[in-house]
Task: structure prediction
Amino acid sequence: MNKDGAPIRIEGKKAVLREKRLSDAAKDYAWNSDEELSRLDAAKPIKLTFQQALMFYQEELSYPPPKRKRFAIDTMEGEHIGNSMYYDINEAKGEAELGIMIGDRRFWGKEYGTDAVDTLLDHIFTNTTLKRVYLHTLDWNLRAQKSFQKAGFAPTRQVQRNGYDFIAMEIFKVDWQKSRLEKASSAGEAV
Result:
C-alpha cells in the first residue's frame, strides 16, 4: 500500500507492477508447478495441492514478510503475465536482492521482463533508501543475463549455491541515476 492507503500500481512502458492479490493465486500456482519455469529459477516445482498452496498464499497476502516486497507483472491491458520482487531487504546495508519471472511464455522475448526490471528499479531507487540491488542468475541463462545488463546490472562474479552455478550481478543507485540522465539527455528529455 502507498502512504495514502491505496494499492501500489507502478506503470512502466510496457508493463505494470501492482500489489499481489488473491486472484493471482491460480496462475502463480501453475507457474510454480511448471518444470521448465522452476528450472529457470533453480528451484523444484511445488508439490502442494492448489488448496494447500492457497492457504499459504492467503496468509502471505494477509501478513506480508517485512523483508520482501512482491509485485504482479501485468500488461497495460491488465493481463497478469509474471511476478517480480525485491527481498532480503537489508536497510542497514542499503541493499536487496531482485527476482523476476515472466510466467506466461507468450510474453517471452518481447521486452516485458526488461521493462518490469527497469520499472522496479525506478521504484526502489526513488521510493526507498536502498543504494544497491543485486541478483543471481543461472550461468547458462544468457537471455536473462542480457536482459539484466540492458537494465544496467553488471556481472560481478560466479557463485555456487545448492549445486547450481550463478552469475552475481548488481546495480548501484548512483550508476542507475547516471544511466538515467544519459538516456534522458540522448533522448532530449528532462529528468
Notes: Residues 112-127 form the longest helix (16 residues). The radius of gyration is 17 Å.
